[in-house]
Amino acid sequence: MKQLVILSGKGGTGKTSVAAALAHLAAEDMPIVLADADVDAANLELVLAPTKREEHIFMGGQKAIIVADACTTCGRCAGVCRFDVPHPHPPSPLSLSHGERERGGRGGVGEVYTVDPLACEGCAACVYQCPAEAIHMEEQQAGLWFRSDTRFGPLFHAHLFAGQENSGKLVTMVKQQARLLALDEGRELLIVDGPPGIGCPVISACAGAELALVVTEPTVSGVHDLERTLGVGTANHFRVPALVLINKADLNPTHTAHIAAYCQARGIPLAGQLPYDNVVTAAMVQGQPVTVYEPAGAMASALRAVWAQVRARIASDSEGET
Amino acid sequence: MLFLDCDVEEPNAALFLRPALDQSEEAGILIPQVDAERCTFCDRCAQVCVWHALAVVGRRVLVFPELCHGCGSCTLNCPAGAIREVLHVMGRLEAGRAGPITFGHGILNVGQAMATPIIRQLKKKHLTPGDDRVVILDASPGTSCPVVETMRGADFVLLVTEPTPFGLHDLRLAVQVARDELGRPVGVVVNRDGVGDAGARPRLDWVDAYCAAEGLPILMRIPLDRHIAEAISDGTPLVTARPEYRPRFAALYERIAQEVAARQEAT
What we know:
heterodimer, A: nine-stranded mixed β-sheet, two-stranded antiparallel ribbon, B: three-stranded parallel β-sheet, 10 helices, about 35% helix
């Protein structure tokens, strides 16, 4: 089983539309599994019309809970907490707030320390420092993950609850489930739609991949973003061979040439170029991969050429293994 | 005014504003350094660390910087006072000026997993209580911790979306975080207006219908226009490429300023 991860530094480069089209084309050639690793903005399901088969709870990190009646309002917790930002409107994870002390707690009426769960890092430093032992940690449900069926193969996807941490852990979970199913059912290719950026969810999305397809745009930041994205694997001590796809290539021929030259100088093959074309959005509106929506169009034929490149790379990689 | 690019994974605002960056400093978190002379190898530090960033192996204490979140709990709990903290560099902060704008951004080093410490430090460096400058913070895409860290403390959150299924889906999530979880007032800018009409008969007002139902004001519309896309791809700000947008952006700012002022009066 091979793993292809689709990445982009910036958001909105067309990564998910490319992933959906490759899912369609790949499924015509081999049995595949899909994983949406963009867990805080999972869009792949919007163009694959999945039927949900399983839903599972994802437990994220722990958050501090202060028992109001035990709090003496000494302020030690807020003093040791490092995850606040001095700001005109102090949004500290631990703050004095009104209410919930009518039952006559030890600190008097009115104010008690509370935890802002969105700001709490879960470090438990306050738990150990509270002289009244009023604070404990509680595991929080941070999201859901799903196994669904699509006409191209099973899809593993997730929903990280608003503002939750641990997206990297959820990505790892989604990919692990997808890999297990692929191995069980003898599916040949796992296509991972990755998140934007270079942080923890991207690192998790890249881990174990045989090939990364990096979707970029010919903009003033194109080469810069590309360089940072390509560096993620290398810097984390795993080397993922990359192919670069220039989307909206005709929008700025100068930058397209610049990206192509950058890739050539570093021996990074180009997977191709896609035109600037609203047909991608038209397909999205219909909830379809663009290769299904307009199979005879220029966009679809460009994407078929991309898939041919990807397939060849994956196949040559297999020969190297044996 | 102050502009902070908080998209530290892909900081690109400088390509448009072209500031002269004359300040640079290392950024990261404070990680433990154990004094072997004082350490009694009691294992307390490893026990309190929820990230498993410390391990006591025989008469050695191993520290794993990539697991550490810099909370300082180990230092606070060490009975021998054997831990001091040193900066673990994860990126850098740069600052300078672009005409009348004070500019700052953070750059996460490639390979580092955690963007939030850089964002937190960037805000801490530039935002001081009592400062009454107008501050614009540019957030990364999505709704997870880097975005939350950027929005915390903001007086107003402006959400830029596209009238497409993807745009609407992600807008809903952003509204959940900004308005429902963080309690911030929000407004919407519809970018590439008309793009979702492609292939749809009759016209589908994806984002409009949602905003109307939720009572979210649409403060501006930027039409789908290849010429705008071309200008942006060259790093030309919209108000430079299309001067007719200058009064529209000025009006957008006024509208937000009034909203913020009205809320501050109410509280």
